[in-house]
Specification:
Strand content: 35-45%
Radius of gyration: 25 Å
Structural class: alpha+beta
Distance between the termini: 56 Å
Strand order of the largest sheet: 30-31-33-32-34-35-36-37
Shape: globular
Number of helices: 11
Length: about 675
């Protein structure tokens, strides 16, 4: 437990000298509102990780468009390495032992010679602190692209710290598992894997103890466990859309964790509506058993050194909550929650001895990283995610619930302008999340907070089909794309109007990806609710989108096509019934102005979807604007274009739905 009741910020001076910017805004007068660009900037710290000893910190620092990796010794503030990694997008950061750091990046590229169309490709680099050099993962590996196929695995084996990755063969239909020489980056194949290998689990020594295979055409998923020098199939299931998933090792070295729908192993407890139960499987006996969580976890936590399962986390109304099966982890996390009560702390990184932990908080603030030292019984601020945004400039986020027209309860969040405590007659922006099988969560949302800072109330409704609320709620969204998933948003508007919180005559709708579709559908399917809309990377032509996925995956009944058809309610590929839900076919019905924003490097929803909508609006003589973002992907990963998106969105909203209270 913490000594002296957690002497808050006892480490603050030492940590600030190490990492710099934390607390900088507190030294100057707080402006009335933060600049809009402050919200649009990518966070100042993108990734941060403790070394196995807990004595070093590696982090990715963002300044404008430039990213740098920095490694610091906590006790002295000594910078062991600082290196510019340019404008490359960083997707992951982790330690390989105490002297090396893996950095995973991505670029939007195609490989014409191999027939690989424009895709988001992932690359690995290993920083060697002792030699002060960086090597490319899979570099100069014969017949293998220096591209990561799936996530990397780090293991502390008897032969030392080791990195395992899958690499794609240039000449064969293989994506074998490779062990990486950490001095050169060269890979050595250690296990054969073809395109049907869906996933795998490594034990602490880097040996494969489970394989999953998936036949996409038949939709059959199978579990394979070791037998002799090979493996044997021990269980299979027809899974045309939702496949079981591996979640690493279990609580012992010879067990694995699988999330799967197993009604044959169910119990009366399954009445909770859980989509997939989390099981532990003994790889020697093949026996499945339910893990003893009190609450179904959304994600799992593994020990930083052994990689054995120690707990799980779940998203609740007020933030992420943890449940640990390991007694030491449970005791220490209880102390963290006590010290950061009402802050819903999130676990970021633990040292191997679990005597130091980095946590993140963003309740009533723009986000802070904290270092907790259990030996000293102290904590300190490491860095601010958005150093230019003070707590006073963060709007209150209220959890809300309302009933849809058919009576289904819809949860969500309402963000108010900073300082607003008694909202009345406010202009509203409906901010629809992507997915659609996703959800909004409590805490600091840069987009919602940016809009609230300009004087808007912001509604984020977790409409039917969102995740996190059980099987029935998710399945209620099947076939409701543009139907009840859309009216759930409008029902939220009507509820807020009835409560007197907003002015129903001053409502616009904004969103990205599926949310971008929802913005366009708001103006085409429910134009009487919204006076304007902003679509970022949205789908305008459903049939065209699904047909593209079929062409990309080279056959008409892929898992991706089945997924979209399930949500869209399509009976088959090229179902013309989707045209009735496609904004590009409904441009004549648009009453309010629409802003289209799309990244040119979007490989998830291609920019042609916005171009098709723009052309339809032009032909219909409807008011619209179209902004193309050069070099931007589907996730708004670049600071410059993310800021541009936000500035253009707010300019458009202020012109068509001015902020301020109703007269």
């Amino acid at each position: 437990m913490f000594k002296s009741g957690m002497k808050a910020f006892a480490l603050a001076i030492a940590v600030w000298c190490c990492l710099g910017n934390a607390g900088a805004w507190a030294q100057a007068p707080v402006p009335a509102s933060a600049p809009l660009e402050a919200y649009g900037a990518t966070p100042a710290i993108e990734h941060i990780q403790l070394s196995p000893s807990g004595e070093l910190i590696a982090r990715i620092i963002v300044t404008g468009e430039t990213r740098a990796i920095a490694v610091t010794r906590i006790a002295t503030g000594e910078q062991l390495f600082v290196g510019d990694i340019s404008v490359i997008k960083v997707r992951d950061l982790r330690w390989i032992g105490e002297s090396r750091v893996l950095v995973v990046t991505s670029q939007t590229r195609n490989i014409t010679s191999l027939g690989v169309s424009r895709s988001e490709l992932f690359f690995g680099q290993v920083l060697d602190l002792e030699r002060q050099r960086v090597v490319q993962v899979l570099d100069r590996t014969p017949d293998v692209l220096a591209v990561l196929y799936g996530p990397a695995s780090v293991r502390n084996t008897s032969d030392g710290d080791t990195l395992f990755v899958r690499g794609v063969s240039v000449s064969q239909d293989q994506a074998n598992l490779h062990r990486i020489d950490l001095r050169t980056g060269r890979g050595r194949s250690v296990a054969y894997m073809d395109h049907t290998t869906d996933d795998y689990v490594l034990d602490g020594e880097g040996k494969i103890i489970a394989l999953a295979r998936y036949n996409e055409r038949s939709g059959r998923w199978s579990l394979h466990l070791p037998e002799g020098q090979g493996d044997r199939e021990v269980w299979a299931v027809d899974a045309p859309v939702d496949t079981p998933t591996f979640h690493g090792m279990g609580r012992t070295p010879r067990t694995i964790v699988i999330a799967a729908d197993r009604p044959d192993l169910g119990s009366e407890e399954d009445g909770s509506g859980i989509l997939d139960t989390v099981f532990e499987v003994d790889v020697d006996t093949g026996v499945w058993s339910r893990l003893p969580f009190d609450h179904h976890p959304d994600s799992l936590v593994h020990h930083p050194q052994t990689r054995l399962l120690i707990g799980g986390s779940r998203i609740e109304e007020d933030g992420v909550r943890y449940e640990f099966l390991d007694p030491q982890a449970s005791q220490r996390w209880q102390a963290v929650e006590q010290a950061f009560r009402d802050k819903a702390p999130r676990l970021v990184s633990w040292s191997d001895a679990m005597n130091r932990v980095i946590i993140f908080t963003d309740t009533a603030e723009a986000g802070q990283y904290h270092l907790v030292d259990f030996d000293l019984g102290a904590s300190g601020v490491l860095a601010d995610a958005y150093p230019a945004i003070a707590p006073e400039q963060v709007g209150a986020v209220r959890s809300i619930h309302f009933a849809a027209e058919d009576g289904l309860g819809i949860p969500g969040y309402l963000t108010l302008p900073p300082g607003e405590s008694e909202p009345s007659g406010l202009p509203l922006v409906v901010l629809a999340h992507g997915g659609p099988a996703s959800r909004d969560v409590a805490g600091f949302d840069w987009w919602a907070q940016a809009l609230a800072s300009r004087g808007y109330a912001v509604l984020q409704a977790n409409f039917r089909g969102s995740t996190g609320y059980g099987r029935a709620f998710l399945e209620a969204g099947y076939g409701e794309w543009g139907r009840k998933m859309q009216t759930d948003l409008s029902d939220g508007v009507r509820w807020l109007a009835a409560e007197g919180v907003i002015d129903p005559a001053r409502v616009c709708i904004v969103g990205a990806s599926y949310g971008g579709y929802a913005a366009m559908a708001g103006l085409t399917l429910e134009g009487d609710v919204y006076r304007c809309g902003v679509s970022v990377g949205g789908v305008s032509d459903l049939r065209r989108m699904v047909n593209r996925e079929a062409r990309y995956e080279r056959y008409s009944d892929s898992q991706t096509v089945r997924y979209w058809n399930r949500f869209m309610g399509a009976a088959r590929l090229n179902d013309r019934g989707l045209d009735d839900l496609s904004p590009a076919y409904l441009a004549d019905s648009v009453d309010g102005p629409l802003l289209l924003i799309h990244g040119k490097d979007d490989t998830v929803v291609p920019i042609e979807q916005s171009r098709v909508m723009a052309e339809a609006l032009r032909r219909a003589g409807k008011p619209f604007e179209f902004v193309e973002l050069p070099g931007e992907d589907h996730w708004l990963s670049r600071s410059e274009t993310r800021r541009q998106m936000l500035v253009e969105t707010v300019r458009f909203l202020e012109a068509n739905n001015p902020p301020g209270r109703a007269d």
